[in-house]
Amino acid sequence: MPPHFWQDLEPYRWVVLLAFVDPVVIAVGLWIGWKADQAAKLLLAGFAAVIAAVAVSFLLRFVGVSWFEGGYFFGGAHALARFFAGVAWAVVGYGARRASGR
Question: Transmembrane segments in this chain: where (predicted)?
Answer without folding.
Answer: 12-32, 39-60, 72-96
